[in-house]
Every structure is written in C-alpha cells, then in structure tokens.
Please model this.
Amino acid sequence: MAILTIENLDPGSFPYISYAIFQSGRVAYYQKRAYVTAFDGQSATCQVNEDGGVFTVILSAESKQQIHAGCDCGQSAKGTICKHIVASLFAAREYIAQEGNGNWQYRLMQALESTPKEKTVRAQRTRYAS
Ligand SMILES: [Zn+2]
Model:
C-alpha cells in the first residue's frame, strides 16, 4: 500500500513539467483556485478553477516515490502534466501538512509505511536513481 506524502507530491520531482506549466500551476494554487475535495491517504481528488471551468485532478500513490496524476482537461491523457495537476500537487501537499497529522487514518498509514519493508523500497530507489 502506498500513500501520498509531501515527498512524492513534490512538483519539483516530476521530470517533464515545463517552466510555463509549473508557473501557471503555482499561480493557480497561490490564488486559492486549487483545493482538495477528497483524501483517503492513497489518493486525493482535487478541483481547480480555471478560465471559468472546473477541472478535476486525481492523484494516487503508486509507490513511495511515484504517483499517478490525471486531469480531465485532456492534456494528461497525452502524457503531459498540465497546470491543473501542478496546482493540485501544491494543494495536496498543503492539505497533508495541515490536515494529515490530525487524521488518525493517515497517521496509521504513515506508520505502516515506515515498517520493515521500507528498506527494500529505499534500495530500489537507489537503483532507479543511478
Ligand atoms: Zn488539466
């Protein structure tokens, strides 16, 4: 079971975000146009208000380091990270920072994540990184 964390939601760890997309996503977040509507530890549903429309972004944890992100604007279907996803990453990180510690289910998941198998995951990360 993988959970969303401040680490794997870090927009800086996504290799294929252009600077322009990153900036507009960050602006949307700072303008409070991105917010988390559902969060269960393993996945988060976010909404982003943009140009009069509302876009839904789903973030789900695939492993300790990897998440899957999809947006209904259609750009992510082509394998591109859109600004809505960037905005949602920021919003989800803020959500975890603010709400995560007060949520017993999330704390329990965090505790389970850091039990013995962590060693294996760390070893894998080193291999992928090299
Ligand atoms: Zn989008």
The mean pLDDT is 85. The CA atoms of residues 10 and 89 lie 7 Å apart. The chain has one domain: 11-109.
